[in-house]
Structure formats: C-alpha cells, structure tokens
UniProtKB/TrEMBL annotation:
It catalyses: an acyl-CoA + a 1,2-diacyl-sn-glycerol = a triacyl-sn-glycerol + CoA. Pathway: Glycerolipid metabolism; triacylglycerol biosynthesis; Lipid metabolism. Residues 6-260 form the O-acyltransferase WSD1-like N-terminal domain. This is Diacylglycerol O-acyltransferase. Belongs to the long-chain O-acyltransferase family. SUPFAM superfamilies: CoA-dependent acyltransferases. Residues 301-443 form the O-acyltransferase WSD1 C-terminal domain.
C-alpha cells in the first residue's frame, strides 16, 4: 500500500470536513445529444462502466482512517475503483425546468462524500427533455481545486464532435504525482513560505495598531449577517451571461472582467442586504483565489493563493464604488506580485490559521479572515463533446465555512460566463434575491461607471 502526505493546504480542507461544512467543489454541466436520445446515451455509458476499473491520480486516493493518520493527512492509493460506489443516475419528470435541476443539484451538493473511498462522485440527471442530460461532478477539495477540476473536465472531453471513444475522466486524471524537488529548491521554497508568514504577521500587527492595510484586507470586515456558524443547508442559484457583452461592459467601465465581477457582487450585496436591513456601514471584504501554477504544471490538489480585498459596499455612488473596488484589488495584486508562489501560499496559511484552528477546535464563531469568496476560473473557449453529446453549460459550485457564508464562482466557456452562487440557506436571505440583484447590477453597470 502506497502512502503519502497531502500538502498543508489540502490537509486543511480534509481536516475541516463536517456535515455543516462539506469540503467538496463541483461542476454542474448540461449536454445536448444530437440523436435526441439522452436516456439511452447515459444507460449505454453506465453499462460500459459497470465493473471495477483502474483509476488515475487523484481519483484513486483515499484518506487513511485513524487519529494519527488524520493528523498526518495521509492518503493511500487504490489500484481500482468501482463506479457503483461513485456514479449515480437521477430522473427528473418530463418537462422539469432549470429550477428543478437546481434544486436537485443543491440536494446532491449538500451531501457529504464518503471518505472511506476516493472522495468524488459523478451524478447523471435525465428525464427533463429527451435530447438533454445533466452531469454533476463533485470532488473533495483535498483532491482538486477549481482550476484543476475544470482542467479535468476539459481534458476528458474533446473538440471533435465525431469522436466516440472518450475515456472516463477517472481513468485519465489531470497529471502524475508532482516531481521531487532538489534540496536547494526545497530550502528556497521553505524560505519563501517563511517570508509569507512574516508578512502576514506584520499585517496582523498593523491591524492591531489600527494602521491601514498594506494591500490585503484580512480580518477587517465589519460585523454582519455573513458571520458566525452555519448548518449544512444551502441555497444555490445559477446564472449565464454573454461573455462578449460582459467584456464590453468591463471595457466601457475602464476595468478588467475580474474587477467588474467584484463590482457587480458589491452592488448586488448593497441591494440584497439593504433590502433586509442588513447592510453594514463599513465595507465588506472578500477572499479572491489566485492560481499559482507555473508553466505546464498540471498537478491536481490546491495550488492557489488567496488575495483579500475590500468591496466598497459602504459607497452609494456607483462610480466611487467601482474606483474603490479597483484600488483595493490592485493593491492586493501589487503586494503579491513580487512574491514567489510559496510566499503567497505561506501568507494565506498564516493569515487563516487562527480561523482554521478555531474551527477545528469546534469554535464555530471564530472570526473569519474574510466573510465570503469570489472566484473567476478560466475555462475552455471552444465547444466540447462527450461521445458526440455537446457540452452546453458548465456551472461551478464551491463550498462554505463557518464565518464564510456566501460564495460566487464563475467560469468562462464557449463565449459565455457561468456563475454558481452558493449561500448558507438558513442564515442569509433567499439566494435567488441575490442572483436577481446581480442581474440588475449588470444591467445598470455601463451607465453609472461611464458617468
């Protein structure tokens, strides 16, 4: 039996797993069958993959049970996986709409993965229409992050609509195990992590002294409804925006697509929380993941840093709010720009460790470093196919934690921007109200920024 330790970041995701905080990420994807027989497509696939098969990394990694193994974050490889333990088939009634699919996806996403087996699942959904089916792929965050999961999707499908021999993603995997680093590189990486830890400590000192942020807005959010413990109840809303139009609005506003996304969330928050009398007087903040993979690094697992930025939710004027959003995120980027990836990772780990240790000790009211997450994941630009079935949409779905009860993640695919909005359903106002506020924010974005 081959044993190995997870990275510190991936070990954190594994250690936080609980019914209130399932630590998995997912993609909800819809496919269109050219022959109009979606049910037969799925049944054929299930029949062809009904027995144990060899699996590739990371889909063959199982957490090792036991207190010591858990403390060491040990995982072991298995030679084969049984699809019966990982693949499910759901049926919606004929004529079911997107709301029905979203409700089912929410139900699936709130259920914990089985850590006695490689922690991932593939859910097929048929019945709503004869020519369409949906797939929800969810995997534990200790195996993949959002970037590596979308890469798995892209690499397991094809741009050739005539191809009919697509291999299952769990037999291919995103990459082999990471190569061992030389002693010199290992020391250099350790020193970079240490630098990140020291920078985080200095920012903490500045915060205690009441000095302004140097770039990262950590633990600087006001008290709000986003704080505190959550349960396993989730609200999920999905949105699709035309990417060309989104880019046009960003260009007219003099900002990037990422800047515009932050601005729209900020504007929607003002609308959504304000309508319920829950908008704080001071600005809310957010965590913004940034991919740290270099060159052809195709490893799974988490290889991301976390920027902490202010959203300008305290500013009523749209132009001032956008300017504040841009200033804050540009400052966060500048602080990390000169750092090695390991230093950025070290900063994030040191910053969040008080929060993480509190959660691991069962203190669900421990102050969070940021009350929400906003992420923009790069996705495939060209249409993708699965044995002739065209991928028509791909919605990312992230995770929540105590003190971090809202997440907005988007992925670009084939000319569109797909958003998955996840909320703590029993703590926050209805998620569809936030999604509607986001729609209104985009509709009005060009006018206020150009003024």
């Amino acid at each position: 039996m081959s044993l190995e330790r997870l990275s510190a970041t991936d070990a954190t995701w594994l250690s936080l797993e609980s019914p209130d905080m399932p630590m998995h990420v997912a993609y909800l994807m819809e496919f269109s069958c050219p022959d109009g027989h979606a049910e037969q497509f799925v049944l054929r696939w299930l029949a062809a993959h009904s027995g144990p098969v060899p699996a590739a990394r990371p889909w063959n990694l199982v957490p090792v049970a036991g207190r010591l193994a858990g403390a060491l974050a040990l995982v072991r490889e298995v030679e084969e996986i049984d699809p019966a333990h990982h693949v499910r088939h759901w049926h919606l009634p004929e004529g079911a709409d997107r709301d029905d699919l979203t409700r089912l996806a929410t139900r699936i996403h709130t259920t914990q993965l089985d850590l006695r087996r490689p922690p991932w699942e593939l859910h097929f959904v048929t019945g709503a229409a004869p020519d369409r089916f949906a797939v929800l792929l969810k995997a534990h965050h200790s195996l993949v992050d959002g970037v590596s999961l979308v890469r798995v999707v892209a690499e397991s499908l094809t741009t050739d609509s005539a191809r009919r021999d697509t291999a299952p993603f769990f037999t291919v995997g995103p990459a082999a195990a990471p190569p061992r680093r030389s002693p010199v590189a290992a020391v250099r990486g350790f020193l970079a992590v240490l630098l990140g830890v020291l920078l985080a400590a200095w920012d903490a000192v500045r915060r205690v002294l009441g000095l302004p942020a140097t770039g990262q807005h950590t633990y600087r959010q006001p008290p709000s409804i986003l704080d505190g413990p959550i349960t396993g109840a989730r609200g999920l809303a999905l949105r699709r925006y035309d990417l060309a139009e989104f880019k046009a609005v960003a260009k007219a506003s003099g900002c990037t697509v990422n800047d515009l996304l932050l601005y729209l969330v900020s504007t929607a928050l003002r609308d959504w929380l304000g309508a319920h009398g829950e908008l704080p007087a001071a600005t809310l903040t957010t965590g913004v993941p940034t991919d740290l993979r270099e060159g052809d690094d195709q490893r799974a697992g988490t290889r991301a840093g976390l920027m902490f930025t202010a959203l300008g939710t305290d500013l009523a004027d749209p132009a001032e709010r956008l300017a504040a959003v841009k200033t804050a995120i540009d400052g966060a980027k500048r602080q990390f720009a000169a750092l090695a990836p390991e230093a950025v990772i070290g900063y994030g780990l040191a910053t969040t460790i008080p929060w993480i240790l509190g959660l691991r000790a069962g203190r669900t009211r421990t102050a969070a470093s940021h009350p929400m997450g906003i992420s923009n994941l790069p996705g495939p630009r060209r249409p993708l196919y699965w044995d002739g079935a065209r991928l028509t949409s791909m919605y990312p779905i992230s995770l929540l934690m105590h003190g971090n009860s809202l997440n907005v993640t988007c992925t670009g695919y084939d000319g569109a921007l797909y958003l998955g909005i996840l909320t703590a359903a029993d703590r926050l106002p209805p998620v569809e109200e936030f999604a509607a506020a986001l729609d209104r924010a985009l509709d009005g974005a060009e006018r206020p920024v150009a003024s």
